[in-house]
Recover the amino acids of this structure.
């Protein structure tokens, strides 16, 4: 039984994936880390709570509780970079987004361990995604795969300045139909939050791998700047300042906007 893999089935033509909301780290890995807090720093904090209304819309959700430091299920399993020439993190990250080392000297995973982690966590996660997409495609001609993410608004190693609130990724238009992109853009723009499409984040491996519009699967990634729903520290994060607690009142407006975004996905799939 894989209690770290959480699948909630719905019947609507929408699958919401949460690849980075997990914070669990096996003890044998945690013992080798510089800092357990540092290892969890880059989680997509509280995203699963932001979207906890998705099952009420009939959406299927797939979530891993395993921390991305153990293995990032949204990276190319071959180890190839999603953003050649730009700073990023790998399949089994050895640094944080800020470039800080995650493992103590000599403790980083070798090729054999990375392969074991792929077998233990990466492959079951994607088997679940494939199974749910197949099930939904048996019921609907069109299915939307929505990748739910978030990141701090300021990460100088990854991007300059302040990230827009909504960062839509469509692999430069290849992972979904232009009408879905336009519908999600309209929902974001109506919220008053800032928005960019295919900017710094164009979609991770999941969006790029499964987005096959000609086969009925339209994949789109949403990277939220955390400040849209939670307080962020003024300077670099520390164990005392990050993450800030989830505050339903603080997150209410963003949740309302995300309701419109997921409804736009459902309207597209049903059209």
């Amino acid at each position: 039984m894989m209690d770290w893999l959480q699948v909630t089935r719905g019947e609507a033509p929408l699958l919401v994936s949460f690849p980075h909301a997990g914070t669990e780290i096996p003890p044998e890995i945690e013992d080798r880390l510089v800092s357990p807090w540092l290892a969890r720093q880059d989680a997509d904090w509280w995203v699963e709570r932001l979207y906890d209304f998705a099952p009420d819309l009939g959406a299927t959700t797939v979530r891993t509780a395993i921390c991305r430091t153990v293995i990032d299920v949204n990276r190319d399993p071959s180890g190839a970079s999603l953003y050649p020439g730009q700073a990023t993190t790998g399949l089994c990250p050895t640094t944080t987004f800020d470039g800080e080392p995650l493992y103590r000297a000599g403790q980083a995973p070798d090729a054999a361990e990375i392969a074991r982690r792929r077998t233990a966590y990466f492959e079951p996660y994607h088997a679940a995604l494939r199974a749910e997409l197949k099930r939904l495609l048996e019921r609907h001609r069109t299915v939307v795969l929505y990748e739910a993410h978030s990141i701090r608004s300021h990460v100088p190693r990854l991007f300059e300045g302040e990230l827009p609130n909504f960062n839509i990724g469509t692999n430069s238009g290849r992972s979904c139909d232009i009408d879905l992109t336009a519908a999600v853009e309209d929902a974001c723009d109506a919220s008053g939050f800032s928005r960019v499409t295919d900017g710094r984040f164009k979609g991770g491996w999941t969006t790029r791998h499964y987005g096959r519009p000609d086969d009925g699967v339209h994949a789109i990634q949403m990277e939220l700047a955390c400040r849209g729903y939670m307080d962020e520290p003024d300077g670099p994060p520390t164990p005392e300042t990050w993450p800030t607690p989830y505050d339903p009142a603080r997150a209410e407006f963003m949740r309302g906007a995300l309701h419109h975004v997921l409804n736009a996905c459902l309207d597209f799939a049903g059209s």
User: Anything to note?
Assistant: The domain at 5-270 is CATH 3.40.630.40 (Aminopeptidase). The mean pLDDT is 96. Residues 34 and 103 are 5 Å apart (CA to CA).
